[in-house]
Structure formats: structure tokens, C-alpha cells
Amino acid sequence: MIHKNVDQAKKASSCSSKTPQNDADKQRMEMDAMIKDNLARIKHKFFVLSGKGGVGKSSVSANLAATLAKKGYKTGLMDVDVHGPSIAQMFNITELLDIAPDTKQLLPRRINENLTVVSVQALMQDKDQAVIWRGPAKTGIIKQFVGSVAWGNLDFLVIDAPPGTGDEPLTVVQTIPDARGIIVTTPQEVALADVRKSISFCKTVKMQTLGIIENMAGYTCPHCNKHIDLFKSGGGEKTAKAQGLNFLGSIPFDTRVVESGDDGVPVMMYEAPGPFKDAFEKVVENILKQIEV
Amino acid sequence: MIHKNVDQAKKASSCSSKTPQNDADKQRMEMDAMIKDNLARIKHKFFVLSGKGGVGKSSVSANLAATLAKKGYKTGLMDVDVHGPSIAQMFNITELLDIAPDTKQLLPRRINENLTVVSVQALMQDKDQAVIWRGPAKTGIIKQFVGSVAWGNLDFLVIDAPPGTGDEPLTVVQTIPDARGIIVTTPQEVALADVRKSISFCKTVKMQTLGIIENMAGYTCPHCNKHIDLFKSGGGEKTAKAQGLNFLGSIPFDTRVVESGDDGVPVMMYEAPGPFKDAFEKVVENILKQIEV
């Protein structure tokens, strides 16, 4: 069903014809109703944003969802990064998603009792195929991900969007108007310049922002145990203050995050503690403080 | 003029009305002629791509352009990353671009005798403003950057596009059909998965690809001088071999690249040698070997 829907999304461009197409209108109304119905059963929606790519937005999304699930909350994770979906790899999801025989809804992949995941990657037969879609097709697939997936009753839905302020983030905000933003950055100015754009985006679209996470902030040499600022330091907190946003915390760089991203088990699902885990726990606490769960 | 053009680009969506608009058609034909004229005066076009963000694509673009200019080639650098333009910061371009009084063309910023730069950032009054444009508007601005900028006679034009395989890369390829791809990655699998998508993109759009650069490959601890694989190692070369592409070389991680990116002078413009500079020189040699200049 979803493959047919994807085809339809690709055909349904943003250009509306002058003569009203009753079938298309009807389908759109049906989809809007499905989206509304699904969203009503999800208590809190977190939208993880970054201005710049490569700041660890997908790692943060994956570990945030894993932590919330570990705390006992029913959690969904939705990867809408059409061009560079990383979430499937991070949870070792290699097979296509299944379809429910009765409702014909797409079934999210169950990672554990509390955590389900959907990634655009899990819809593709050939994982190395580039998705060369223009904006309107991407809008279509994101709406499908909200409306055609059997999310069920959730405490949290974590949404991982591509970097920047283009079609995908805009569609997420328009489709999920009560989503709350969590902004991820690294400490250096080139990244912070893009973060200020993300903050401007949140203000423009009037999305509530829970705060800024500074990722890859500091590293401990595995040989001599001395501290190294790989991407400078302190920029995230400074930017949060200057922009009147909450600073949710600094997370150190950890090669285990790189390895765990490749191995399919997010660090927050490990049992052993460590500086990354400790810092990440604090970030999640700072997020939950602002929410009534 | 460009601000008016940007407005027009934003209005001119992809939806063509049923009644032919002669003015719009005429403008489009004029723009196509300007693009053709500009491209005819540029010998070689390099399109720097990455599947994943944050792999250092903009650093590589900036340092590639700086190195070519240093070797005596007339070089232009065009930043078409509408949502996260980093190139202006990397060359400390803080003012808006000027307009030629006679031709009304946009004047690229002159960095030195051989190097000129244009970034979407240099068109914005408020640097922290998010550019919330959907696909068609982005297509418009990229075409303007090729056709309305007084590039003059160039040996090389280096194009820095946003990560992924969406509107912007597609527009670059359609506007500059003889552009040759240079793919940047980091060594870990999550990045390589996206690189394979970039390779698939190049094949799909039939763009010649010069090869793969592996960036942030290895780091030397500044305290104990021991080697650390921050993002694993060897993945770029392995992927190049598996995909039948040239491997252009590995470049080590260097905090000086982070700092120089913030300070406005790319490392390749420094005088002092170092592991990053040496490795980068080899990469540029491997690129130039494949080109008749």
C-alpha cells in the first residue's frame, strides 16, 4: 500500500489543477483525517532539528527515543530524512516494513517493548538507491509517515528531520502543529551560524522550542586521557543564552557513538555507564522537566 | 537587481499556468541565454557532493578552490547551500555582494587575484534569518547564481551544494550539464551508506565522477601525539573500490580546520605545512591528473 502511496505522492505535485479533481480531493481529506486520528493518540511530539548536517542529530534522536523507552514511556521514532536516512542503520533495521493485513496500515518496526521505529530507508528495496525527489514528493511521504503508520497510543514521538529549513521541516511543522523543537548543534561558530537559522525557523513557524543540545563537545584521548576540544567549546550554551532558549546540556564526543551507530544499537541501550551516557541522561531530564507526562 | 530576482524566483513556482505568460517565458529564455554564456567561459566545473552532512564538504570545497587559485588557476567558488551556507563564514565575507553598474550583474567577492566567491549568505541582510524556501524557489536562486553573476573567464568553478540528493543537486546538474562530481565522506558506515546514495545519484543523472575523498580520517592527539580513529578508518577507499571509482585520498581531522573555518581563512591559504595540507595537496593532484588544464 505504501509503495502505491509513494507513487501517488510523487505524482501529486504542489500544482493544483484548475478543475477540481474529486478523487484527489477525497484522498487528501481521507489522509488528513488519518493524520488527525493518529496524532490524537500521541501525547508529546519532539522535533529534533539542526541547522548544519553532521552534528549528530540522528544519534541524538535515536538515543533520546531509546532513553524515553527505557524509562518506560511508549515511544515512536520517525526518520523523515529522505535523502540521508540514518535511523535504520542505527537500529539495524534491514528489512522492509510490514503492512497490517486488516487496516492496511504500515507497521513500524518494534525494537523493544516500548520502542517502535519508522524510517524511509525501510521502504526501499535497494538501500543504496538515491532518492532524487523534489520538494512536493517529500511532503507527500512525510504526511504518509504520520497518517499511514500504525503508531498506536504513544507517550512520545521523536521526529528526526534532515538539517536545514526547507521542505521537510516545514512539512513536519504544518502536519504536526503541536510538535516541540529540540535543536542540536556542535560548539563551533560555523555550526552555530546555522543553529541561529534553525531558531529563526522555529520562531517564524511559531513552534515551541524546548532548548539547545551541544553535541560533540570535548573528547578524552583514549591513550593519555587528556581533554581535547575537537570542535571548540561553549558555543551551544552561549548561543542558547543569547537567544533566550534553555540550554539542555553538553554531550562529549565518543567514538562508541560512531561505532554504535554502525553496529545498530544506540549507546543509551548499553548497560555500562560512561561520560556520554551520564551527560545524555541529564539532557533527557532537562527535557522531561518541561513536560507533563 | 538580485534581490528583485530573488523575489521573482520565490514567486515563480514550478507550476506553469495554462495560459502562456509571455513575459515569464521571455525572462526564462533570457536567463537560459545568460547561463549558457557564463558557462561557456568556464573551462572546468567541479561539483562537490556528499550524502551526509557534516563530513566537511564545505571545508573541502573552500580548500579545493583556495588550492587551485594558489596554483595560478582562475577559480570561482559558488555556495548553493541555501539553508546552511558556510562558505561566507569560511572566507569572512560579511557584506552584501555588489552589483555592476553597467551590466547589472552580481559581482562575486574577490578573495585574492585568482579566487572569487559567491554565497547565498552574501545576499542576506540578516545573517541569522532562516531561508524557509520550498524546492522551486531554491531552483530559481541556483539558476541566478550561474546566470546573473559576473564570473568572467575561469579555469575552475567549484560548486558547494547541500548534502543529499534533492532539489539543489538536481538543479545544479540540470543547469551545468558538464559539471564533474567529487564525493566527500567520512570513514564510518553511517556516512558511507549515504555516499552510496550520492554515487547512485551521479550514475542516475549521468554525471562524470572524479572520485571519493575520505575526510576526517584519523587524528593525532595534541597531548601524546598518538593516533586516534575518530570516525573509524578505511571506509572511503573500500567504498571507492567497491563502486569502481577513483579514491582521491584521505585527509586527517585537524582542529585547525575547525578554527580556520570560523576565522575566515581556509587552511590551504596558510603558509606553514602540516599533515592536513600535505594530504590535501595530494588529493588536488589526484583530481588535476584527470583533467586537461
TrEMBL record, chains A, B:
Function of the protein: Binds and transfers iron-sulfur (Fe-S) clusters to target apoproteins. Can hydrolyze ATP.
Pfam families, sorted: ParA
UniProt-listed GO biological process terms: iron-sulfur cluster assembly
Entry protein name: Iron-sulfur cluster carrier protein
Record-level GO cellular component terms: cytosol
Entry binding sites for ATP: G51, K52, G53, G54, V55, G56, K57, S58
SUBUNIT field: Homodimer.
InterPro entries the UniProt entry points to: Mrp-like_CS, Mrp/NBP35_ATP-bd, P-loop_NTPase, YlxH/NBP35
Family: Belongs to the Mrp/NBP35 ATP-binding proteins family.
Location of region: Disordered: 1-27
CDD domains registered for this protein in UniProt: Mrp_NBP35
Keywords assigned by UniProt, alphabetized: ATP-binding, Hydrolase, Iron, Iron-sulfur, Metal-binding, Nucleotide-binding
UniProt keyword Membrane present: no
One GO MF term attached to the UniProt entry: ATP hydrolysis activity
Superkingdom of the organism of origin: Bacteria
Biased composition range(s): Polar residues: 11-22
Sequence ranges of Basic and acidic residues compositional bias: 1-10
